[in-house]
Amino acid sequence: MAMSKSLQEVQAPISCQLCEEFNEIQWKCLQCNFLMCSRCRKIHQKVRSSNQHKIIDINYIAEYQQQSSVPDFHIECGFHAGQICCLFCQTCEVVVCPSCIAKTHHEHSMIVMNEAYDLAMKSIKCMNLEVKQKLSEIVSEKSKLGAIKSSVALKYAKEKKVVLNQDNLVKMMK
């Protein structure tokens, strides 16, 4: 009996992660990874960049997680301790948490993390291809420069020999 009482004393209700009030948590946005009350769910759905977000009843979180095979991004916010980034702000090119969205980025263009990841991977692949092409060009140019250097070195050696021979002839004539 003492143990169950101590567990109850330790437990604290979770506040809505949007309004930060102790309203009853009923919903979870899977993309933003935050819990919210019914009032904030309505507000969240009105945000232009969240039209493709999946919001589920918290009673079905475990069932959904078993069905889902989408990679899950858990990037902790660098500005708000304990907050997980849920969107990518294309305007600022940073990942943002719900607090960042509410305070700073609410009018910016945002996309879900998976889309941002796909865009970043596509960009990295393009840059990688460009780097390989530039590297190939550099290797080719280096080879050409090596050939020119050896050609110039041969001409230098020949001219040096001619000059030294001329110098010897002049010295012998004296």
UniProtKB/TrEMBL annotation:
Alphabetic keyword roster: Metal-binding, Zinc, Zinc-finger
InterPro entries: TRIM45/56/19-like, Znf_B-box
B box-type domain boundaries: 11-58, 72-113
Keyword check for Zinc: yes
Cellular compartments per GO CC: nucleoplasm
The organism's place on the tree of life at top rank: Eukaryota
Keyword Iron: no
Single GO MF annotation: zinc ion binding
Signal sequence residues: none
UniProt protein name: B box-type domain-containing protein
Lineage: Eukaryota, Metazoa, Spiralia, Lophotrochozoa, Mollusca
